[in-house]
Amino acid sequence: MRPFTLNYAFPRSRPTVVTPYRFDASRQLNVLPDGRPAVSDPDLLLAAGTTASTAGSKTHFDD
């Protein structure tokens, strides 16, 4: 039997999230598809809030 509150505690499906940047290990920073550093895109920073990388140290920020 499923408790009633679990119908509201967990979303029914996860939203699809597309990250518009990727981590470039050779440059040690997040880059956009065109090769520019992700921190150079103000619209991305406004939408995401940060481009912190999860690669390596959890306290290292690329911006």
TrEMBL record:
Domain of life where this protein originates: Bacteria
What name goes with this protein? ATP-grasp-modified RiPP
The gene name reads tgmA_1
